[in-house]
Amino acid sequence: MSAATKSERALPWALVTPALGWTLLFFVLPFVAMAVSSLTAHEAGGFTLSNYSQFFANPSYWQAMVNSLQVTAIVTVISVLLAYPFAWILAEQVPERWQRLALMLAVLPFWTSYVVRSYSWLLVLAQNGVVNRALTGSGVFGEPLQLANTRLATVTGFVHFFVMLLTLTIFANLKQLSPSYRKAAADLGAGPVRTFLHVVLPLTLPGIMVGAFLTFVLCIGDYITPQILGGNNELLMPQLVMMQIGRRGDFPLASALSIILMAVVTIAYLACARWLKIERA
User: Does residue 37 lie within any of the structural domains?
Assistant: First the structure.
């Protein structure tokens, strides 16, 4: 084997080694350490499955998972329903020379800190916030509504962020869609509605699912938004994990809860991947 051939074979490994090392150091090893910690007792040490059994035996822990799934499902559905028309308008109605500017304006929420956005929504939804002042000033309600520190506030903060994320993934998919598909559907007698339902929507489904899955992953694992906007009135899984660490110092139980949350995300990924495979076939 010549030196040039050896060099060509070694080049891909040389390029991928830094990424593999980073993944091993900052994901694989911490994950293994967390998995080992989840199988140890909090004070006594030694192997145990009690950390996992506590999740199923304690109703409050199980309810935290249910709350997280409910909030995540609501956020994902609302974000998809809002993002698709927005992405379609950007891709189809906005002139191409203005699309970059429109996209830049659309992703402005990404330019600000996540914490700042959450506190901004807290001020908007507060008792003396903009929304309540508008409602009471117009005479719609006589007293301010309890909007902050509720599930509604948490969902609002999430949707404000994830609509932009979904818009980007759906917009990219719409731009890749050839106009010839719609022309062929029109030639075959399909109207705008049938063309959208049977041609455009199925072909843009991968973009929807990618954005929806990213929304699911980021939403179900988020701690900041529920903590700030939810006001501890409803316990979600990330808050439950942080409580075990901050209040009890129970790292094994926190690790077990994190592993369970990762298992839920993995199941969601497998479900999305399998469904997309069926649709593409």
Answer: no
Is residue 51 included in any domain, yes or no? Answer: no
Residue 182: closest CA among 166, 168, 167, 201:
201
List Cα–Cα distances, 179 to 63, 65, 91, 269, 276, in angstroms: 48, 44, 12, 31, 23
* Structure confidence by residue, pLDDT tens digits, 101-141: 888 887 777 778 888 888 999 989 988 888 888 888 888 78
Q: Look at residue 111 and give its three-state secondary structure.
A: helix
Please answer whether residues 217 and 86 qualify as being in contact, where contact means their C-beta atoms are separated by less than 8 angstroms. no
Residues whose CB falls within 8 Å of the CB of residue 218, separated by 6 or more in sequence, listed in order: 162, 165
Confirm whether 185 is domain-assigned: yes
Whether the CA torsion 222, 225, 229, 232 is positive or negative: it is positive
The domain of 170 spans 71-254
Q: Report CA 267 to chain centroid distance, whole Å.
A: 15
22's tokens: 């980073």
Burial letters 112-125, b for 16+ CB under 10 A, else e:
eeeeebbeebbebb
Into how many domains does the chain fold?
Answer: 1
Write down the pTM of the prediction: 0.87
Supply the pLDDT for residue 234: 87
- The CATH number linked to 194 is 1.10.3720.10
What does the radius of gyration of the chain's CA atoms come to, in whole angstroms? 24
- Cα–Cα distance for residue pair 228/242, rounded to 1 Å: 14
